[in-house]
Design goal:
Strand content: 15-25%
Shape: globular
Largest sheet: 6 strands, mixed
Distance between the termini: 40 Å
CATH class: Alpha Beta
């Protein structure tokens, strides 16, 4: 399942803890993700998934524990450009005043300080890689895009910086089932073609079992050990089983 040409990075989280206003929101979180693999983090609303994601990308600092990328602490890995990370936000995170091409190019221009001659081929390549058409879609405004197209543009923006790891925050939220499957296939294809490590926070059980190499569940600020989809299905833990099987017809009776 993991690409042999993986350019992805290893992630190792150990003993991560965080309290807000004296209330623990992350407790002894441990997580190991192999380079080039897809790890899905699932859990109910309020379980701590979003807080964990913000810590993994460096937006928040834990009270205790460590986050290592290829063996280097998060702060050092970013400072010394050992890793390039990208985030695909739940709502896409596109700037509505910029067209598709400009949204994809923004980081390259503002942070990488690349020239237009350097940026444009990267933007066109990223647009093509997510199944969009340069001539037809590059100059569309976000307001002209469907939900699925916005997700694709967000993924293209991530790909343009050639990241070693991509974080996806609820990538199939607010999408119809057909489009959700298409986005799931896109995430898997990106992982296969680029060898990028992918970490996905989602409630979408079909997505998780369709594309994950490993799945971990978060409950009350703690993570279960990552396991394969088949291993997860056989777990006897009552909270996990309730999450996996919620929504059957008997639940509404």
């Amino acid at each position: 399942m993991t690409p042999s040409h993986s350019k992805g990075v290893n992630l190792a989280v150990s003993g991560l803890g965080r309290s807000l206003s004296g209330v623990p929101v992350l407790s002894e979180v441990h997580l190991s993700v192999e380079a080039g693999s897809i790890c899905v983090i699932m859990g109910a609303s309020g379980s701590g998934k979003s807080v964990l994601l913000r810590h993994l990308v460096g937006l928040e600092t834990p009270d205790e524990g460590s986050i290592l990328y290829n063996g280097s602490p998060l702060s050092e890995a970013i400072t010394w450009n050992q890793i390039e990370m990208a985030i695909v936000f739940q709502q896409g995170g596109l700037l509505h005043s910029l067209d598709v091409g400009e949204n994809i190019a923004l980081y390259l221009r503002e942070t990488k300080r690349l020239s237009d001659a350097e940026v444009e081929p990267l933007v066109d390549q990223a647009i093509t890689q997510v199944g969009l058409d340069v001539a037809h879609d590059k100059h569309k405004m976000p307001s002209d895009l469907s939900g699925g197209m916005k997700k694709r543009v967000a993924i293209a923006r991530a790909l343009a910086i050639d990241p070693g790891i991509i974080f996806y925050d609820e990538p199939t939220s607010e999408l119809d089932p057909v489009t959700a499957v298409a986005i799931g296939k896109e995430i898997r294809r990106v992982n296969k073609d680029h060898g990028t490590t992918s970490i996905i926070v989602t409630h979408d059980r079909d997505l998780a079992f369709g594309i994950a190499d490993t799945i971990t569940f978060m409950a009350q600020g703690r993570l279960t050990d990552p396991q394969t989809p088949e291993e997860i299905k056989s777990l006897s833990d009552p909270q996990t089983r309730q999450f996996l099987h919620a929504g059957s017809q008997k639940d509404y009776l």
